[in-house]
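Nuclear matrix constituent protein 1-like protein: structure tokens wanted.
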Amino acid sequence: MAPSVPCTRAAAALRMKQIALDNQDRTIRCLRAQLATERRGLTATKKELEETQVALEASHKVIAGLTEIDLSMYKKIERMKVKKQQVRANHMECHQKFQARIHEAEDSMQAQHLLIEALVDEKDSLLQTIHGLQEANNAPAPFDGDWEEEPEEEPEEEEIEDIPLGEGEIDDE
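Answer:
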């Protein structure tokens, strides 16, 4: 028994070392598998990060473009507002000028109307004076006492002939 004990102990120790090595080997394989999984995950994460970074850069470019468009539109709107104010001011100025012209024309028409009334009154007075002088001189009246005023002529509107609508043919006769 004695001679086999050291062999058994050595075999047991060897066997324990073999089990420990097998356990370490399993642990190493397991850790390598975890490491490979982590690397694949890291690679996927890196790829997602790169895609996100590309998308972010594209978004920044789009935002920069939109900002530029926004500024351009803002400037155009401001120019349009200024132009609108100028147009409004010009319109008011023209309106005031036309109102002044209308008032001048109305005043002129009223003055002409008063002048015409004064001339008609003077004509009537002259006719009465002439009539009175003719009676005083026993002269025949060149016209009867009923003076008829001629009606004011209104401009005649040109009549537009009705042109029958044909089929678009032109007759050169």
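Helices lie at 4-136. The radius of gyration is 59 Å.

Cheers.
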